[in-house]
């Protein structure tokens, strides 16, 4: 990875941190748990990208097959361990029998399409560049929040969004 690409990755990561930083929320008693949970997510996503790239390295499996393996393992893990442990079996039954079940399925299809494209990017351009582009979800979440939810635009949002995109370009540009 070049120095420019590394600087772009750091710029994007710092921009995401600044975007998520809310000093008034630090006093919250769950702040440390939330921060540690986010850290675990970052490590998990990083490892996922690297492991997938390794598995797809010699074209032994396609990006679609790699995604299928990942989704299957996740589904089994959630279905057998996570949902019962957190007492979510009742909520699961309510969700799949409610009026929003079709909406949930539609959103799941969008998520699957997103993952398919992400895994294709990992396979084609490598894990660092794919992750650098994937981090732009922060910007898209802001845009959708403004358009769909009517969230307000702040200077912090604009500056951090621009820096995330610049950092992503620095990572992905040859």
Radius of gyration (CA) equals 18 Å
Oligomer: single chain
Strand content: under 5%
Number of helical segments with 4 or more residues: 8
Order of helices and strands: HHHHHHHH
How would you characterize the largest beta sheet? none
Whole-number average pLDDT?
85
Annotation, overall tally of beta strands: 0
Given helix and strand content, the structural type is: mainly alpha
- The low-confidence runs, each spanning 5 or more residues with pLDDT under 50, are none
Overall, the morphology is globular
**Helix fraction?**
over 70%
Distance between the termini: 10 Å
Commentary on this structure:
By secondary structure, the chain is mostly helical. It is built from 8 helices and no strands. α1 packs antiparallel against α8 (155-172). The longest helix is centred in the N-terminal third of the chain and has 25 residues, at 31-55. It starts with a helix and ends with a helix. The mean pLDDT is 85.
Ordered list of secondary-structure elements with their pairings:
Layout: H1 3-20, H2 31-55, H3 63-85, H4 89-97, H5 101-125, H6 127-134, H7 137-149, H8 155-172
In short:
The chain has 174 residues and is mainly α. The protein contains 8 helices and no strands. The radius of gyration is 18 Å and the shape is globular.
């Amino acid at each position: 990875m070049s120095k420019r690409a590394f600087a772009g990755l750091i710029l994007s990561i710092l921009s995401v941190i600044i975007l998520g930083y809310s000093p008034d929320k630090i006093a919250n008693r769950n702040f440390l748990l939330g921060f540690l949970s986010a850290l675990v997510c970052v490590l998990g996503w990083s490892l996922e990208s690297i492991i997938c790239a390794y598995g797809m390295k010699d074209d032994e499996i396609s990006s679609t097959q790699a995604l299928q393996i990942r989704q299957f393992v996740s589904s089994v893990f959630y279905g057998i361990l996570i949902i019962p442990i957190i007492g979510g079996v009742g909520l699961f039954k309510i969700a799949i029998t409610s009026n929003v079940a079709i909406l949930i399925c539609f959103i799941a299809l969008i998520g699957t399409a997103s993952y398919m494209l992400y895994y294709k990017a990992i396979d084609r351009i490598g894990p660092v560049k794919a992750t650098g582009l994937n981090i732009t979800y922060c910007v898209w979440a802001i845009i959708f929040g403004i358009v769909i939810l009517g969230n307000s635009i702040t200077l912090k949002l604009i500056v951090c969004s621009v820096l995330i995109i610049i950092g992503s370009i620095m990572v992905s540009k040859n």
